[in-house]
Amino acid sequence: MSTNKETPTDDDVVNIFSNLSVLPDIERHLQLLYRPFTCFVNTKCVYDLHALFEVLGNSRYEPDKHSALFVQRVYPVCNLTIYANGNIFCKAYSRDGARDGLSKFEEILELLGYTPAFYNFQYNVVNATFCVPFPLDLEWLKLESYANIISDKSQPFLFHIMPKTGIKFAIFPTGFVYVLGCRQPNETNDAIAFIMPILYRFKAETKRSQQDLSLSLGDISSSLHWEGEFQKEQDFAMTW
């Protein structure tokens, strides 16, 4: 069996989920990365992590390696990260699943004698990132899709709204794209399938080499910076 990595055709990429046999090649080609659905809350409690570890099943506490207690739950399926200062993160297969995971854990904490404050839930904004292997003409995109575009000249990107949803795409001229505001995995895939043909319509003229472009698109520090900005800045906050 051949183990060569294939470069997918443009048609394969535009119809990204139509042929699952080439999907791994497409994901690699686009550097497509999904984010787990995460819900966070500061419970205004101080926890004895060692004591919790002693009574909670499917838990791991190694204070010499990490300051948190890790707990796996099956109803709903989720992973909890608990810090002594009251911060708790829950990762699950959907936004609602992450919220439910925290709510179920609240009941356990109350049975153990804690009085946690479970409100002001926060969710991760970015659900996936990828980059098309060419730069994009954002001015042309704004002209053609103005009804679905939010842009600010002071920012190096624009938002493209997916109609009739709360989903947005932060699109950079380098071809890097953030998918924001999804609630479950199928929404993330539907969003990617929606935006891909649009991106391939608005290729920009470029004389840059493929290697230079790849390095630009794969700038990890830059992508992490903007992911943090989308998460924390009020101007970029999603309306849940």
TrEMBL record:
Coiled-coil blocks: none
Source taxon at top rank: Eukaryota
Entry annotated with the keyword Transcription: yes
One Gene Ontology biological process: DNA-templated transcription initiation
Gene: LOC4816726
Keywords: DNA-binding, Transcription
GO molecular function: DNA binding
This protein's name: TATA box-binding protein-like protein 2
InterPro entries according to UniProt: TBP (IPR000814), TBP_dom_sf (IPR012295)
Family: Belongs to the TBP family.
KW Metal-binding (keyword) present: no
Cross-referenced Pfam families: TBP (PF00352)
